[in-house]
């Protein structure tokens, strides 16, 4: 037994040697290599973006094909290419961009699929944080960007301010003029000039026309503002270009059944030189004294706006438009009369920001704060008759914290008399208040009255007679309110 075992071991090396001498088959395959193994962006302040490179290398001996994908649910990360084909030894740079939408941590997995047989799928983690970081914000104050009647051969200075409204330094990467040579920058080279937060830089341009045919030039400013990295507007001399035209689709009259929202449309504004887009700037230039309304949202860049018309009287809204090169139109105005459609309409306003004043309309001969005869904050829409809702009063606005307005309306009041009163309900830190009451009857403003009031006083404003449409003011002195509620 021992002899046979030794003999078999003696033959083993020979057998191995014979096998090792057999020819081998070597295949040419690609090999994927990625660096770094993860992309870390750190903190980035919205709306800024950050971009970092990812290097993909083919370390194999055959062409490498790869696809790169991010999950559909990922929007904060992006890549600049979805597919690659790399020759032997080639390397590609893939740019990964991180744009946080808010202040939180973000993460995602970038998937790379390739024909590398050893690593067909590789996952690269991406991480970043949206942080509340300071950013610059560029604004242009167009002091003078149009100059008319400049004599040929003379020199005129045009000006604009570059303002940094942000909280981080604003770097002007370049300031260039591209257009007619009659315009030249007066400032030294502004490339690289830094404007501190809240500061401004005056830029002066020399305009020297050679004739009176008109000239123009584009101003191009590049900066590190994340929202507006490049701004362009135009300087115009001697009517070198026709400005845009502002147009408002404007009502001549608005009938009020309580407060109304009026839509003003400026979408028909146009630019004869076709420098689009059009930018819109709206402003309320006149409103009745009893109103404190304004646009609900910043109306700039909106072609139409909703105006909350809360009281009757004269209203005026201004529209100015700018074209794509920031050339400004002349202002256009929309002016209309707001007329209460209800036959009886009362408006109360006052001159302090915190006091709570209350308007009362009482059926003639009835008591103050008695239900259902006194229409007020605690009895806003009482039933006053058998004719349906048209003869019932409505308190459409109850302002509880300053200025007003409050209004009470009756569409078709029954014949009879109605007492109008004002109560200084709560002072909220205010002292004496000057109250104003406007009385509209049958679509006409028949009286405007004012009275200084102290806390908890009642002012008997006057008596309305219908159907004559007469209002008789009451001259009695104010008095302490005997009640403060309907209950």
Rg, rounded, reads 39 Å
For the secondary structure, the number of strands is 35
Q: Helical content, roughly? A: under 10%
Q: Shape, please?
A: elongated
The largest sheet, given as strand count, sense and whether it forms a barrel, is: 6 strands, antiparallel
Counting DSSP H or I runs of 4 or more residues, the number of helices is: 1
Low-confidence stretches: 1-24
Strand content: over 45%
Mean pLDDT figure:
89
How far apart are the first and last residues' alpha carbons, in Å?
A: 120 Å
The assigned structural class equals mainly beta
Q: Tell me which oligomeric state these chains represent.
A: single chain
Task: Give the number of domains.
Answer: 4
Characterise the protein shown here.
A hairpin with an 8-residue loop joins strand 28 (394-397) and strand 29. This protein starts with a helix and ends in a 7-residue tail after the last strand. It has one helix at residues 2-20, and strands spanning 32-35, 39-44, 50-58, 64-69, 77-79, 83-86, 91-98, 105-114, 121-130, 138-144, 146-147, 156-164, 170-179, 183-185, 193-195, 200-207, 215-223, 230-237, 253-256, 260-265, 279-286, 304-309, 313-322, 332-340, 344-350, 356-363, 374-375, 394-397, 406-410, 416-426, 433-441, 444-453, 457-466, 470-473, 479-480. The strands form 8 sheets. Strands 26, 27, 30, 33, 34 and 35 form a 6-stranded antiparallel β-sheet that branches. The chain contains 1 helix and 35 strands. It has 4 domains: 32-130, Immunoglobulins (Immunoglobulin-like, Sandwich), CATH 2.60.40; 138-237, Immunoglobulin-like, CATH 2.60.40.10; 253-340, Immunoglobulins (Immunoglobulin-like, Sandwich); 344-480. With 487 residues, the protein is mostly beta strands. The radius of gyration is 39 Å and the shape is elongated. Residues 1-24 have low confidence and may be disordered.
């Amino acid at each position: 037994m021992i002899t046979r075992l030794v003999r078999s071991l003696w033959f083993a090396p020979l057998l191995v040697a014979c096998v090792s001498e057999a020819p081998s088959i070597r295949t040419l395959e690609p090999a994927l290599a990625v660096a770094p193994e993860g992309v870390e962006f750190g903190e980035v302040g919205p709306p800024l973006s950050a971009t970092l490179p990812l290097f993909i290398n083919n370390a194999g001996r055959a062409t490498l094909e790869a696809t790169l994908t991010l999950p559909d649910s990922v929007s904060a990360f992006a890549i600049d290419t979805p597919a690659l084909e790399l020759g032997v030894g080639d390397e590609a740079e893939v740019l990964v961009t991180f744009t946080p939408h808010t202040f939180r941590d973000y993460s995602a997995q970038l998937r790379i699929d390739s024909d590398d047989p050893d690593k067909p799928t590789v996952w690269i983690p991406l991480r970043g944080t949206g942080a509340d970081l300071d950013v610059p914000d560029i604004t242009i104050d167009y002091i003078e960007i149009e100059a008319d009647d400049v004599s040929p051969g003379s020199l005129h200075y045009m000006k604009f301010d570059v303002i940094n409204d942000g909280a981080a330094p604003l770097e002007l990467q370049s300031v260039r003029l591209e257009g007619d040579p009659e315009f030249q920058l007066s400032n030294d080279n502004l490339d690289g000039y830094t404007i501190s937060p809240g500061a401004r830089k005056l830029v002066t341009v020399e305009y020297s026309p050679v004739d009176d045919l008109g000239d123009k030039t584009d101003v191009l400013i590049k900066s590190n503002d994340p929202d507006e990295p490049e701004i362009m507007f135009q300087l115009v001399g001697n009517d070198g270009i026709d400005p845009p035209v502002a147009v408002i689709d404007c009502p001549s009259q608005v009938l009020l059944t309580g407060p109304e929202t009026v839509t003003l449309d400026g979408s028909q504004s146009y630019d004869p030189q076709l420098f689009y887009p059009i930018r819109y700037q709206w402003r309320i230039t006149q409103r009745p004294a009893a109103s404190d309304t304004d646009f609900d949202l910043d109306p700039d860049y909106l072609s139409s706006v909703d105006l909350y018309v809360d009281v009757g009287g004269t209203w005026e809204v201004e529209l100015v438009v700018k074209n794509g090169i920031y050339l400004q139109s002349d202002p256009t105005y929309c002016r209309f009369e707001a007329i209460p459609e209800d036959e009886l309409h009362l408006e109360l306003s006052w001159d302090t920001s915190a006091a709570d004043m209350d308007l009362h309309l009482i059926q003639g001969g009835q008591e103050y704060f008695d239900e259902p005869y006194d229409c007020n904050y605690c009895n806003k829409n009482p039933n006053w008759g058998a004719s349906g809702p048209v003869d019932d009063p409505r308190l459409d606005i109850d302002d509880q914290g300053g200025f007003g307005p409050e209004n009470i309306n009756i569409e078709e009041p029954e014949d009879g008399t109605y007492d109008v009163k004002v109560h200084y309900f709560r002072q909220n830190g205010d002292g004496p208040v000057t109250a104003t009451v406007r009385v509209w009857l049958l679509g006409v403003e028949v009286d405007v009255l004012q009275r200084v009031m102290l806390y908890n006083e009642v002012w008997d404003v006057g008596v309305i007679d219908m159907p004559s449409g007469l209002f008789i003011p009451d001259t009695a002195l104010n008095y302490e309110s005997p009640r403060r509620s309907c209950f």
